[in-house]
């Protein structure tokens, strides 16, 4: 059932785009944005997000991102040049880029709390701090889809669909805590939608930039892979294991996401 859905969706996107990489990027970006937005709309129906739901959603996303970083980005970067060097340089640049954003952009984690310059801690409301945290997660995902599309449309579409699947619970994870904090519904939903739109912009930008500058593509694939690995290892995994609760559920969620992405990637073989 899932395989048929993936196959039909991929064919539909390729057909309506006429094979144009920018139209494919537009529809792929629209898909991930819609999935994030649909998840955000769950804030209308719930007043409290269970800790187990947050942990499972984030661990599922981490599993998807770990596999996607390698199968859709780092390994294609190595294969496209037959050399490890461009991929290695790209990974290092991706890690440094997100590390700098993580260090100097104020944001609030659900568990770890505030990160960023101390002078901004009391100036920005927690709502915006949480939104910044989610955008730090989402931008590498959008870049990953865009760069993988520039490398290969089929690989890019599989990546987009996998990222979109895990964006649904991520959209919920964004909006429900904001709804609980604010006792409102509309603004948290809009924030979830905004994070999806930001991801869509990165999909289109990544596809356009690395189509225009094709010689940089191996570095771009490595950069997106490094960025995703940094977000997963530095941000997501410590966040979900910090409470030291639901360890089994978290681990199951991670491997479910791992297997889903691996299954989607195997469809290309």
Descriptive labels:
two-stranded antiparallel sheet, globular, 269 residues, mainly alpha, 9 helices
Task: Offer a quick outline of the entry.
With 269 residues, the chain is an all-alpha fold. The chain has helices spanning 2-17, 21-40, 51-81, 85-104, 126-151, 153-182, 186-212, 217-241, 247-266, and strands at residues 107-109, 113-115.
Mind sketching the topology for me?
Blueprint: H1 2-17, H2 21-40, H3 51-81, H4 85-104, E1 107-109, E2 113-115, H5 126-151, H6 153-182, H7 186-212, H8 217-241, H9 247-266
Antiparallel strand pairs: 1-2
Helix pairs in contact: 1-2, 2-5, 2-6, 2-7, 3-4, 3-5, 3-6, 3-8, 3-9, 4-8, 5-6, 5-7, 5-8, 6-7, 6-9
Number of domains: 1
Strand order of the largest sheet: 1-2
Query: Can you write the helix and strand succession as a string?
Result: HHHHEEHHHHH
The stretches of 5 or more residues where confidence is low (pLDDT under 50) are none
Return the average pLDDT rounded to an integer.
Answer: 79
């Amino acid at each position: 059932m899932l395989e048929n859905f993936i196959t039909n969706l991929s064919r539909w996107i390729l057909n309506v785009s006429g094979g144009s990489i920018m139209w494919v990027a537009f529809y792929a970006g629209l898909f991930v944005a819609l999935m994030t937005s649909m998840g955000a709309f769950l804030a209308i129906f719930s007043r409290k997000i269970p800790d187990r739901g947050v942990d499972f959603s984030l661990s599922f996303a981490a599993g998807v991102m770990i596999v996607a970083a390698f199968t859709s980005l780092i390994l294609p970067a190595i294969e496209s040049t037959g050399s490890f060097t461009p991929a290695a340089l790209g990974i290092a640049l991706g890690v440094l880029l997100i590390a700098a954003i993580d260090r100097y952009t104020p944001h609030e984690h659900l568990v770890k709390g505030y990160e960023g310059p101390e002078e901004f801690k009391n100036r920005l409301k927690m709502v915006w701090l949480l939104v910044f945290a989610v955008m730090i997660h989402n931008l590498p995902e959008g870049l990953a889809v865009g760069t993988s599309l520039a490398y290969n449309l089929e690989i890019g579409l599989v990546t987009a669909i996998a990222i979109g699947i895990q964006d649904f619970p991520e959209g919920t994870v964004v909006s429900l805590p904001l709804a609980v904090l604010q006792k409102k519904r509309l603004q948290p939903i809009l924030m979830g939608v905004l994070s999806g739109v930001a991801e869509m912009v990165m999909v289109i930008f990544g596809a356009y930039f690395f189509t225009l500058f094709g010689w940089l593509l191996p570095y771009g694939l490595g950069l997106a892979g490094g960025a995703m690995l940094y977000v997963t290892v530095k941000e997501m995994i410590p966040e979900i294991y910090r409470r030291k609760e639901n360890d089994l559920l978290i681990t199951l969620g991670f491997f479910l996401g791992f297997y889903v992405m691996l299954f989607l990637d195997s469809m290309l073989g």
